From TrEMBL, chain A:
Secretion signal span: none
Membrane-related topology note: Multi-pass membrane protein
Protein known as: Putative spermidine/putrescine transport system permease protein
A Pfam family assignment: BPD_transp_1
Chain ranges of the ABC transmembrane type-1 domain: 204-412
Gene3D superfamilies: MetI-like
Keywords per UniProt: Cell membrane, Membrane, Transmembrane, Transmembrane helix, Transport
InterPro entries: MetI-like, MetI-like_sf
Domain of life: Bacteria
TrEMBL record, chain B:
SUPFAM superfamilies, sorted: Periplasmic binding protein-like II
Swiss-Prot/TrEMBL keywords: Signal
InterPro entries documented for this protein: SBP (IPR006059)
Residues spanning the signal sequence: 1-21
Species annotation: Celeribacter neptunius
Domain of life: Bacteria
Gene3D superfamilies assigned to the protein according to its UniProt record, in alphabetical order: Periplasmic binding protein-like II (3.40.190.10)
One Pfam entry name: SBP_bac_8
Protein name: Putative spermidine/putrescine transport system substrate-binding protein
């Protein structure tokens, strides 16, 4: 028995344009304004964060140098059978002579040598030496070149050299990623590296393990402190807060060096232990330049990142809940465990994420106090960036580290729920 | 800020641009070494050229990486860079350093020799302008009771835990350590690199190092060993000879030098490739002055590294502040250089990555 609904004609705004369009226009202006407001931040993040990360990921697979420096050789090599056990024929060597002459003129042949040397030791000097000679040759008259190349360096007769060039000819390579998981691109596809060269998986595993231990130690040490901060009278808790923040504001290097002085074998702690007779003078404890040293120093350095989020969450927990639980007959422990603790979990969550993600990428402290057993994967990344200049490998290692963090973040979200994390 | 002051500021910046053009950024290592360069080269140079002002940047430690990044960004802000020999070779290979025509662009020796002859073996790369010879060698504490009055007299004392118990400090790098290990494993000096390059050569050296691995602290900065020795954390350790000189002669710690099989290395300048012509000319003028015979000899008055020129050797005098004769403290002094190695740049340029991988894998085991 409903009244017949009028067929709605097009609703018009005051100026006669359809309301829909007019609304959309108004919204668009609003959206644009909002976008303009966040534009500085967006551009900032894009330039300082997204683009560098994208550039790093690109570097970890990029491999144009071979085909750009030796374009003719790469083409000529296509017909060469890598399993033949013999060096390629004259056509390839002639192409190499032509390519190298141009490359040596532009002084880029040594750069290629350095790149290939990462995969096959000896290529650096091979290219340096050959470039010097090839410059003097006349391409028209001085052929055939195969023997001349072998005269310059007999490595040119070694099929392994050619396999390396052929394997790394494509513009995109998985080589760096394979290197980062202790494998390599051989002539017959992917191979596992010999045991004496395996290192990265061990380091990834150790980095993860130690980051977990550091996070756990931060929780154990930080929880009582945060509780005290949140529950003591204002005057005392302010003082306590300064004690937490003071080291936080102190230079990282100063704190790390302080731990060095405290923990070393002729250090303060050992001296005291020897003095009170707990430890024999010739049997002093080794507490630094190993995993223990790294864990102690990093736990101390990262502790404020655990305490501060915990504290801000605990402060918002009403003390009346605890009193209510106790008045209903709960023991101190039950009241804490069943009522207080669950409410403080978001603080632990936030602190753990902060500490874990910071720990996994740390490198200064492990480098200074880690010795050999307490170094992280980031120390190797730093090494490849600044010493070996193998930026591709550094980028691949960094890419894997990034993936690991994202996987953990995803798992954390699934198990704990990222909504349960409170920073304040 | 009013528009007027803003305009005035802009005008001032514009006016000061010519002065900026005469600024020269020189990159070095900081510390006592940079001070010695400042006193021996930069101060006299600026006195002669009042329009040039030298700005120091203490980035030599990661100069190769930074230079590469600057080059990729197309904005190289450095004019002269102090690097060790191996880095110079690498930068030259990467096309990041400018090639030098030694006889045309550097000063001839004061004794009439050509620059090429005067620098001799120290010309290790087309891009390298040699400055000093330094060595990596061992220092030991002279007050270790457990040694029962023995003092180390040769390199292999480092591997002799029975006679010389205690912790060692070694560089966290395969270079030098592998050579030393093989020498004490019975390999002749002349066969070193043949053995290292053969199958299982590196493994053999690592097996020798294994005998002292548990007693070793690994350093990565040259300042660590002097500190470790002074604290008594280690009883014997390798580092650069200048660092040990300062521990012994300046800080008077109970430490002595063990020169046996010191490893010589060169340190010097490179000029970044593709600088604007004006800056390149200014940089060349500076290095020509800074590496002439007298200047190199002057530097030895401030630090115990040997000048890279033969013609500078007779001019080495006394330490500027301590007043002691410097010649006996030079690594090149015949008394100190009875047995020595020279850093084999060619071999390491090829095998660094391979050796490094094996060494690091061995370290974390």
């Amino acid at each position: 028995m409903s009244a017949p609904i009028e067929e709605p004609g097009e609703v018009l705004a005051a100026d006669g344009t359809p309301l829909k369009r007019s609304l959309a226009r108004a919204l668009r202006v609003q959206k644009l304004r909002a976008l303009m407001l966040i534009a500085p931040l967006l551009i900032f993040i894009l330039v300082t964060f997204i683009l560098p990360v994208a550039d790093m990921l690109y570097r970890s697979v990029e491999n144009q140098i071979v085909s750009e420096t030796l374009p003719k050789t790469v083409v000529a090599l296509e017909s060469w059978d890598a399993d033949s056990g013999e060096a390629p024929d004259e056509a390839v060597f002639a192409a190499l002579a032509a390519d190298l002459q141009i490359a040596a003129e532009q002084k880029i042949h040594t750069k290629l040598g350095t790149r290939l040397n990462y995969e096959n030791p000896g290529m650096a000097s091979l290219f340096r030496k050959s470039g010097r000679q090839v410059k003097k040759w006349d391409l028209e008259t001085d052929g055939p070149f195969k023997e001349q190349f072998v005269d310059v360096d007999e490595d040119w007769a070694d099929p392994e050299v050619w396999q390396t060039i052929k394997t790394y000819a494509p513009k995109i390579t998985a080589g760096y990623y394979l290197n980062s998981v202790d494998m390599k691109l051989g002539a017959d596809g992917v191979e596992v590296r010999p045991e004496s060269e395996r290192i990265y998986l061990t380091l990834f595993g150790r980095t993860l393990f130690m980051s977990f231990v550091i996070t756990a130690s931060c929780i154990v040490l930080g929880y009582p402190v945060a509780w005290l901060l949140a529950n003591l009278p204002m005057k005392t808790s302010n003082l306590l807060m300064i004690l937490v923040l003071l080291p936080f504001w102190t230079s990282l290097l100063v704190r790390t060096s302080a731990w060095k002085i405290l923990l070393q074998q002729q250090g303060v702690i050992n001296d005291i232990l020897v003095w009170i007779g707990l430890v024999a003078d010739d049997n002093r404890l080794v507490m630094i330049n190993n995993q223990l040293g790294t864990i102690i120093a990093m736990t101390h350095i990262l502790l404020p990142f655990m305490i501060l989020p915990m504290y801000s969450v605990m402060q918002s927990i009403q003390p009346t809940y605890l009193r209510a639980a106790k008045s209903l007959g709960a023991t101190n422990w039950t009241a804490f465990w069943r009522v207080y603790f669950p409410q403080s979990v978001p603080g632990i969550g936030a602190g753990s994420i902060l500490v874990f993600i910071l720990a996994i990428g740390y490198y200064i402290t492990p480098a200074l106090v880690g010795g050999t057993s307490g170094t992280f994967i980031s120390n190797r990344i730093a090494f490849h960036i600044s010493i070996s200049l193998n930026w591709g490998l550094a980028a691949a290692l960094g890419g894997i580290l990034l993936a690991v963090v994202l996987i953990f973040y995803y798992a954390y979200d699934k198990i704990v729920g990222i909504d349960n994390v409170k920073l304040g | 800020m009013t528009h007027k002051t803003l305009a005035a500021l802009l005008a001032a910046t514009a006016l000061s641009t010519p002065a900026i053009a005469a600024d020269m950024t020189v990159v070095s290592w900081g510390g006592a070494y940079q001070t010695s360069q400042q006193k021996a080269y930069a101060d006299p140079y600026m006195e002669m050229h009042p329009d040039v002002s030298i700005i120091w940047d203490e980035s030599s430690n990661d100069a190769t990486a930074k230079l590469r990044a600057m080059d990729e960004a197309g904005n190289v802000t450095w004019d002269v860079v102090d690097v060790e020999g191996p880095d110079a070779v690498r930068l030259c290979d990467e096309g990041l350093a400018m090639e030098i025509d030694v006889d045309a662009q550097l000063a001839p020796g004061d004794d009439g020799s050509t620059a090429t002859a005067d620098f001799g073996d120290s010309l290790i790369s087309e891009c390298f302008i040699p400055q000093i010879v330094f060595s990596t060698t061992f220092g030991y504490r002279t007050d270790v009771e457990a040694w029962g009055g023995n003092t180390p007299s040769d390199l292999c004392a480092v591997f002799d835990l029975d006679t010389f118990p205690g912790k060692r400090a070694l560089q966290k790098s395969p270079k030098k350590n592998l050579e030393w290990a093989l020498l004490c494993d019975g390999v002749e000096k002349d066969d070193l690199y043949d053995v290292l390059e053969s199958d299982g050569g590196i493994e053999r050296a690592l097996a020798k190092l294994d005998t002292i691995k548990d007693e070793t602290v690994w350093w990565s900065a040259g300042a660590e060993t002097p500190q470790l020795l002074a604290d008594g954390e280690v009883v014997i350790g390798s580092t650069y000879n200048g660092r040990l000189f300062s521990v012994i002669e300046e800080q008077h710690q109970p430490v002595a030098m063990l020169w046996d099989y010191q490893v010589f290395d060169f340190d010097g300048w490179i000029i970044p490739a593709n600088l604007p012509a004006e800056r390149e000319a200014a940089a060349l003028e500076f290095v020509k002055f800074a590496t002439d015979t007298q200047r190199l000899a002057d530097q030895a008055a401030y630090i115990s590294y040997g000048p890279a020129r033969a013609s500078s050797q007779p001019l080495v005098g006394k330490h500027a502040e301590l007043g002691i004769e410097m010649a006996p403290h030079m690594p090149t002094n015949p008394e100190n250089a009875k047995r020595y190695l020279v850093n084999n740049l060619d071999w390491w340029a090829d095998n660094q990555d391979d050796a490094e991988a094996k060494f690091q894998a061995w370290l974390v085991k």
